[in-house]
Amino acid sequence: MREISTREVTQAVKRLCIGANSSLRGDILNALQEALRVEESPAGRKVLEWLVENARIAKEEGVPICQDCGMVTVLLQLGQGVRIVGGDLREAIDQGVREGYREGYLRKSVVEDPCFSRRNTGDNTPAIIYTEVVPGDGLKIIVVPKGAGSDNSSALKMLNPTDGILEVKAFVLETVKKAGADSCPPLVIGVGVGGSFDSVGLLSKKALLRPLGMANPDARIAQLEKEIFGEVNGLGIGPAGFGGRVTTLSVSIETSPTHMASLPVAVNLGCHALRSAEAVL
User: Fold this and answer.
1) Nearest CA-CA partner of 204 in 171, 227, 230
2) What is the pTM assigned to this prediction?
3) Are residues 156 and 232 in the same domain?
4) Considering its fold, how many domains does the chain have in total?
5) 212-216: which pairs have CB atoms within 8 A and are 24 or more residues apart?
6) Which residues contact 170 (CB under 8 A, 6 or more apart)?
7) Which domain holds residue 198?
8) Residue 154 to residue 166: CA distance in whole angstroms
9) Would you place residue 234 in the very low, low, confident or very high pLDDT band (cuts 50, 70, 90)?
């Protein structure tokens, strides 16, 4: 059995927190540049130019892409042949977040009590951690810092199974229209369909990790992605809500088996500064 130390985990999480917040994913940067080619609105084009320039400055100077450096979600794919040694895995991850947000001069946004004092924890912990056990002897760590601008406009709905695809599509469009400019378009839209109330939200967040331009392998879902993409861009919200042809850069849908009496749907909106970074130990 292969051993991985908690200190390795801490160092990886620290690097990923800093990297994700300062270096925009290549697929998203490419999509922004492609959006410049098709956007006709003068205001929308100017916004896109600024976003591309902002990404360049952030990467070159090692500063945050956005002032809201998010709440950290960590997705672990833990190999069955791995043994974590040297301490507690959760604490190792939180320590990586502490060090990354301190050394990267990233804004700390987490409050410990959601209802009353809302006192800041001071180090952006605790992280939200999901662990999946997989074959092999490696550990894949995916760090997703996501701010409240886009998450606040995300939505989940328990549809009736008789509602079908048309209602799924309508709910996505309704969510985007309600968000308007609040989620900082152009958006990356992740949609989860199926599973249960508690799992469909995670499914929609995982959908955001799929490389932009990569369709779902199920041709029926891929067609639905294409249709929603076109209809969202037909809303005319445009970059930063100033109007235009580019409201979304991508729509990705992930599905999961569900109960015969359920049709859960979650829409996770990602802003133009959608951030994620990953490493394999």
Assistant:
1) 171
2) 0.96
3) yes
4) 2
5) 212/27, 212/28, 212/30, 212/31, 212/188, 212/249, 212/250, 213/27, 213/31, 213/250, 214/252, 216/252, 216/253, 216/254
6) none
7) 149-274
8) 19
9) very high
